[in-house]
Amino acid sequence: MRAKPRPAATPEQALTAMNHLIATHLVGQQEIAQQAGLNVTDLTCFAFVIEAGDDLLTAGELAERAHVTTGAMTGILNRLERAGYLTRRPDPADRRRVRVAAEPTALARMQEIYAPYYTRMDALFADYSAEEIAVLHDWFSRASALAAGYLEEHCRGE
Predict the structure, then answer these.
(1) Where are the beta strands (DSSP E) in 9-125?
(2) Cβ atoms of residues 3 and 129 within 8 Å
(3) If I label 148, which of 62, 64, 76, 137 is the partner at 20 to 30 A Cα–Cα?
(4) pLDDT digits (tens, 9 = 90+) for 17-32
(5) Which residues pair with 58 in a beta bridge?
């Protein structure tokens, strides 16, 4: 597919558009978490579990990704397990560690909630060439790393 002509934009306009996307996603995640009977942190942790797929995360890895203590992660896992979202499994390599797996019914529920959104996102991506999608991927990846570094330095480094 050939790239379509795009209107010119300044970095400031792009930053404003990004801020609007982030704000919309924050509000949306809050609303989806509420529909799912979870809080946003628990929903985010469940998303990390889903993303890991068959490469099950340990409780410690999940705590690191969510930037919470292992004690806080225990509470998160307790809530998610009680709500039927995941199960804990002993780590076959080290029985002292726990790995977490998504419950198939909870995974199906989340897929049902997010499928219409991802269908719309796929349609949006179809408007872009492979080269433009590569630029988007590069930008999102680098911006995510930059944001994580900033948070670590300014919010968690104290």
Answers:
(1) 57-58, 86-91, 94-102
(2) yes
(3) 76
(4) 999 999 999 999 999 9
(5) 99
